Amino acid sequence: MNLTVSSPINSEILPSNRTMLKQLSLLAGLMLVMSLFLHGPAHSADNIERAEAHVNGMIATVQARTENKELSKEQRVALFSEIITEYFDIDGIVRYTAGRYWRLATDEEREAYKGLFLTILTQSAAEQFSQLAKLDFTPTTSTARGDKLVLVGGIISDKTGSIPDAAVAWRVVTTDDNPAKIIDIEVENISMLKTQQDENTTIIRRNGGKFSALIKELEKRQQTLLDSASR
Questions:
Q1: What is the 3-state secondary structure (H, E, C) of 105-168?
Q2: How does pLDDT run across 67-103, given as a tens digit for each residue?
Q3: All domains of the chain in start order, with CATH
């Protein structure tokens, strides 16, 4: 995998197609309420540097780990579970993708949704393992949005030329008291997190506002992934 990070590092590699980008973007929470107040340039520069370092760290991790072509399916799932947990705000993403129905869900339903969400995400990423080695990433620009959010941008391209280049922006939350975390991925200006929320909301509404309907749907998807992986 050639994920060359040139000049000011900006973003990271991930999905090789829109489906994968959606999965791993799910992957990760516009849910946080972002401050819209202007901030000083020094603070802004520091946040941008932290966000770029965070995304670059993920690039380096994925690059190093996907070079091992001998990993079993179980090891690949474990690998992406580790990466996603370390670099993404999973709790925030889970809350945001459930939309307003998160408040209506029971504690048991919330735990079930989070578990299924993370399992499907990691299994989907593991299924795309070999495709990651075909990706190149070219950084573009990073932009501070308020005093907590940074968009780290770049272009993802497929070395085989089978998939068109895609503009990607990683939304990274940087606060003084917590490590930087990715909360969303924009692909061609489309939020993967918001897309996932809309899909989940549609499922729940079609079933009378029952959060349990979303859990049942995810259980079906998980089984489909397991069946596919066993072939």
A1: CCHHHHHHHHHHHHHHHHHHHHHCHHHHCCEEEEEEEEEEECCCEEEEEEEEEECCCCCCCEEE
A2: 887 888 888 889 999 999 999 999 999 999 999 999 9
A3: 18-230 (3.10.450.710)
